[in-house]
Structures are given as C-alpha cells and as structure tokens.
Design a protein that fits this description.
644 residues, mainly alpha, 5-stranded parallel beta sheet, 29 helices
C-alpha cells in the first residue's frame, strides 16, 4: 500500500519547476521543510510529486499522514506509527529510529487543524534524531527553529506580452485546442488558482469556453464543484470554509468584512471597514497579519520608508477573489453586509476628501497617486447601488470631492456619467447637490456640450443664490466663460472671467478658484491685448494657493506661449509651450496635452522656417477644441457597473 493509496494516480504538476527543485534540494539537509500557500494552490500535489520522484529513483520511503482527515492531537503520533507499520505500543523515539533505519521521509500533509500538535511532534522527533527528514504542507509555517519555508503562489497567467503562463498551460491541458484569449481571460478571472482552474474546466461539458469566460468576467461567485479525494477540495467555497473554521472569531469577522473591498488596501481602510463595537480598531492590524500568515490575505506591498525619514507608505494587502467571495457569503449570512458597505462608502468619502485637500495643498502628484492607489475602491463606491438616501449622499460626496480628477486630469466623461447617475438619486436641495450641479455643468462645458451644460448651470445658480454661496456663483461664471470660449465669444468670456477673478474664495479646497480664472483670462486675452494678458497671467501666479499647483502653472505657461506667439518672439513661445507640456504631463489631461503638442509643432515649424508670427484666426483649431481623430485615452473610472 503506497503513501497515496487514497489519492489515485498523480496528476501533472504544471508551473512548479523552480519550487520542485527547491524542495528536492532541501531534502538533503537536516531541517524541516514546510510548503505553504493559500487554499487550492497545490501544496500537497507538489510535495507528492517531489517525494514520489525521490522514492522512485532511490531507496527512500515515505511515511505520510493527512492531518485534516478527522485526527485529533492525541491521535497524531498513533497515526504516524500506523503509517510506518510499527506496533501500537511504539513511541515517537521508536518512530525516529525506524525512519533512520529505513531512510524514511515523514510527510505531515495539511497540518493546519493540528498545527501546534504537529510542531510539538516534530520537535520531539528531531531531538531524538536530528538528521530526520520531515516535510509538512500547511497554509502557514509551523514556526519551528531552522524551518525552511517554500511559499507557493498562484500560477502566473502570462509571462510577458503574448506569452502564455503556467495557468493557461494548466487550463489548456484540460480543454484541448482553444482560443488563447479565452484561456487567458478565464485564468485571469480565476487569478491563477490551480484548484479554481480545475473546477472551472469541469464546467466545459455543459458550456463553451466563451460562455465560461463571460460568466467569470461578470464577477459572480465561483460555485463550481467536482469530485476530489478530500471534501474541502470539491469546491473553492469548501476549501475556504475549512480555513475559516480555524480562524478566531475576530479574524473571521475581519475576513468577512474585508470582502467588500474589491482591490488591494492599506491598514487604514481595513480598519475603517472592519472596526465596530465587536471588533476594536486596535485588533484589526493584528488580524490582517494573522490572515496573511494563514495565506488568506496577500501582502502586495511592504511598508516603505525608514523610521525617522518622514512618513512612509503603509503596507498594502489583497483578498483574492475566492476568499473574497467566501467572505461575502459569510457577511450576508450574518446580516452584517449593509453595515460593512456603509462603512466602506464613508471611508471612500474620507479618501476622496483627503485627495481633494492634497490636490489644493501639499501636492497634486500626491493626490493623483492617492486616487490611483484607491482606484478600485473609489470606482466601487461610485457605482454600487446606495443602500438609502444617506448612502447616496456619501456617493455624491465622493464624486464632488474628485472634481479635480474629472476636470483637471482629463476624465470628464467618466465624471459626468457618475454625476448624472448620482444626481438622480439625490434630489434633496443641499449645498452638496448645488456643488454637484455646478461640477456636472462645468464638465459638460469643458466637453463643449452647451445643451447639457446650460440647464445644469442654471440649476446650480438657483441653488447658489438660495444657499448664499458666493463661491458657487464665481465658479458658475468661470464655467460660462468656458462655453463662451467655445463659441469664439471672447467679449463674454472675458467679462465672465473678470467677474470670477474679482471674487475672493472662502473655500480654497474646491473648484478652480480666482487664480485659475485669471489664467484662463490671460488665454482669452492673448490674441487681443498682450499687456492685459500678461497682467492677468502675473496676477494668476501671485494669487496661487500653493507652489505645487501644476494645473495652474501649466495653464499660465500656455498663456505665455500664446501671448508670445501672437505678439512676441516665436522662440520664447516655443520654450513656454514646452514647459507647459512638461508641467501638464505631471497630472494628465489628454485634451490639454494634445492642444499643447499641436501648438508646439506649429511653433517649431515657424522657428525653423522663420515665417512671420500669425495671430490665430477663426479657422484655426484652438487648444480647447477636441479633435475627432486620434486614439481615445483609456478611461480611468470606466467600469460603470450596476451590480454590487
């Protein structure tokens, strides 16, 4: 009877050549080896492959027990003795001597439910026979002195552009010839988990690969199942349920609540979502590390920044899809889902507010980095259906706080889509809704959609008057100036911008503000009056809120380029335009970048040919005009999902 008589023939092991070599090399040393990794990653399969190869090519034997097969801590030693065919009254010392004599390797398979008992037994055996070779598989290390840990990760889906990875190879071995893009899509949705890939492949007898890929892309639960030698491997749900049962009550609650986070997260966001009356905030950090050690969480970034060197970046974690869906099911079963979702959206509102303050204060690049780090969460907070009117206001607050992302960084269409949807859900006449109306109108104005912008700005004006919001009236004038520039109505644009620039903003954290109105005034005046345009540009920079305002700086530099182009030296205009382009690239906005590049090309031709300076005419494409040709930039918040 072999050590794996209950498992049948060994299936092919794909994509583990490096780990196979590592484990095989460590078996020649006198230290216990533990294979760790998340549920379904193939720990036992790799251990079996290494040990079967070793016993097939030499005199070694294997003594194996499966710790998840209903054993108790008291039965552990007896199970090993039976596996080694030793008498019942034998001791651990007898077992160690037997293994030395018969060149036996002990395999403690799936140690998790008896982790402490396994660690104690290994210590006892090694005290008797230090050269004993012991291999263990578990979701976390045993914590032994000198223990060599081989951590298995999910299989890579691709190895580079156009190169299929081991996950695709594993799926292709079960599907036969298939479209590579479909194989990649399925493996990517399953995040390279071997167990998930095997279970999904079993569905192909009742659906096509294309249907399977579409179903997985819909973010639905992975309720696939199939026969397996062990009950917990018949489905991903069962595999995670087995690990969940071993967690402490606090760790279970943290795991379940983390399931509302669609992307990777830092401890602060985890604390916001998980903390409650029954889970103290101070307990969340410890739970994160315990769940990471148990291979439930993945740490995607270590903490960055040395102590004393200023504020560093915190670590970031990720809950894989299978564990996330299991946790979400547990969250629904306990009735805690609504509370976790509400805390999640409130935390995202705080993140968006922090990004808004950072944009206007300490640094616009930091604000962009913050939004990029939290892209998945902000996207989900904006698109998941609100629980009630209060929750809808939290979502609207996020959209309004991210005004700079929509208006300054070039994601106007995405911002308009979110605002249109959320304004329909938030009908109460509040100051927040007034800001949202202005922002929706401003974005429509930037998109040159006057039929949409003007009614929104009219509603925003009525709300601003009712709330005595002088800042709002100035912002509305700025938006009307943008519409006037599109109409080539310079007189109206100048009048509106002068009105906006005269206003002293009481809230410097929201909207373009007087400095940006002066910068746009300089652009409007550039072809007409060099003195007034230069004065407006100078006053714009003098009234800046922060030196790190690259949005303002790039706009002023562009105004200088236009002034010099129309009234001065093309070489000077060329230098100013180059600087504007560099500054604008730091924060984005493809519309401005395209316009700057267009003018830059014209200035270069003019400088090379020494042609006379020409004032822009009515037939020339201005910087704010969107060209119909050219590739459309990938939207930032582009997944406007209707589901949770």
């Amino acid at each position: 009877m072999t050590a794996w008589a209950d498992h049948g023939p060994l299936p092919g092991v794909v994509g583990r050549a490096v780990e196979h070599e590592q484990v095989a090399g460590l078996l020649g040393r006198t230290a216990p080896v533990t294979l760790t990794g998340p549920a379904g990653v193939g720990k036992s399969l790799l251990a079996r492959a290494v040990l079967e190869e070793r016993t097939a090519n030499g005199p070694d034997t294997v003594v194996r027990i499966a710790c998840w097969d209903g054993l108790t801590a008291d039965e552990l030693t007896g199970a090993l003795l039976r596996a080694a065919d030793l008498p019942r009254r034998s001791t651990a010392e007898d077992l160690a001597a037997h293994c030395r004599t018969h060149r036996a390797i002990i395999l403690l398979d799936d140690c998790d439910p008896l982790r402490d008992a396994c660690a104690a037994l290994v210590r006892r055996l090694l005290r008797t026979e230090p050269a004993l070779r012991i291999v263990a598989t578990a979701r976390r290390p045993l914590g032994l002195p000198g223990e060599r840990v081989i951590a298995l990760a999910p299989l890579p889906v691709t190895l580079g552009e156009g190169i299929a990875g081991p996950a695709v190879e594993l799926l292709a071995a079960r599907t036969g010839p298939a479209a590579p893009e479909l194989l990649v899509a399925v493996c990517r949705a399953l995040e390279g988990c071997p167990l998930a890939i095997g279970l999904a492949a079993r569905q192909l007898d009742r659906m096509t690969l294309a249907q399977l890929a579409a179903r997985l892309d819909a973010e639905g639960p992975l309720h696939y199942s199939g026969p397996s030698p062990t009950t917990r491997h018949t489905s991903l749900y069962a595999a995670h349920a087995a690990g969940y049962a071993l967690c402490s009550p606090v760790d279970r609650q943290v795991w379940a609540r983390l399931s509302v986070l669609p992307g990777d997260f830092d401890p602060w966001l985890a604390g916001c979502v998980c903390s409650s009356s029954d889970v103290p905030a101070a307990a969340v950090d410890g739970a994160l590390e315990r769940l990471r050690t148990a291979s439930v969480l993945t740490r995607v970034r270590d903490a960055e920044g040395a102590t004393g060197a200023g504020a560093g970046l915190p670590p970031r974690y990720r809950l894989p899809r299978g564990a996330r869906e299991f946790g979400r099911a547990r969250l629904r079963a306990t009735g805690d889902e609504a509370g976790a979702l509400r805390r999640f959206r409130q935390a995202c509102a705080a993140l968006a507010a922090e990004a808004q303050i950072t944009w206007q204060g300490t640094g616009q690049q930091l604000a962009v980095r913050l939004v990029e780090d939290e892209q998945h969460h902000l996207d989900a907070a904006l698109t998941r259906p609100p629980l009630d009117a209060e929750d809808a206001l939290s979502a609207l607050e996020i959209a309004v706080s991210l005004w700079f992302q929509w208006a300054a960084c070039g994601f106007r269409r995405e911002g308009r889509a979110h605002l249109d949807h959320l304004l329909r859900l938030s009908q109460e006449d509040t100051a927040l809704r007034a800001r949202a109306l202005w922002l929706a109108g401003y974005l429509a104005a930037q998109e040159n959609a006057p039929a949409t912008a003007e009614p929104l700005l009219a509603q925003a004006w009525a709300a601003a008057v009712m709330h005595a919001d002088a800042d709002g009236l100035a912002r509305i004038a700025h938006a009307h100036a943008v519409l006037a520039l599109y109409r080539e109505d310079t007189t109206t644009a100048v009048a509106c911008l002068e009105e906006a620039a005269r206003h002293t903003s009481r809230d410097p954290w929201f909207g373009p503000g007087p400095a940006h109105s002066r910068a746009l005034l300089a652009i409007a005046l550039a072809p007409l009056d060099a003195v007034r345009a230069r004065t407006a540009a100078h006053r714009a920079w003098e009234s800046r809120h922060a030196d790190s305002d690259f949005w303002l700086h790039s706009t002023i530099l562009y105004a200088h380029a236009l002034i010099e182009r129309a009234h001065g030296d093309p070489a000077t205009a060329l230098r100013a335009c180059r600087k504007a382009l560099v500054a604008k690239k730091l924060i984005g906005d493809p519309l401005f970048v395209t316009g700057a590049r267009t003018m830059l090309a014209g200035l270069r031709r003019g400088v090379r040919s020494e042609t006379p300076v020409r004032v822009p005419g009515a037939g020339e494409v201005r910087w704010w005009r969107r060209r119909n040709s050219g590739p459309h930039r990938q939207p930032f918040f582009s997944r406007l999902r209707a589901g949770p």
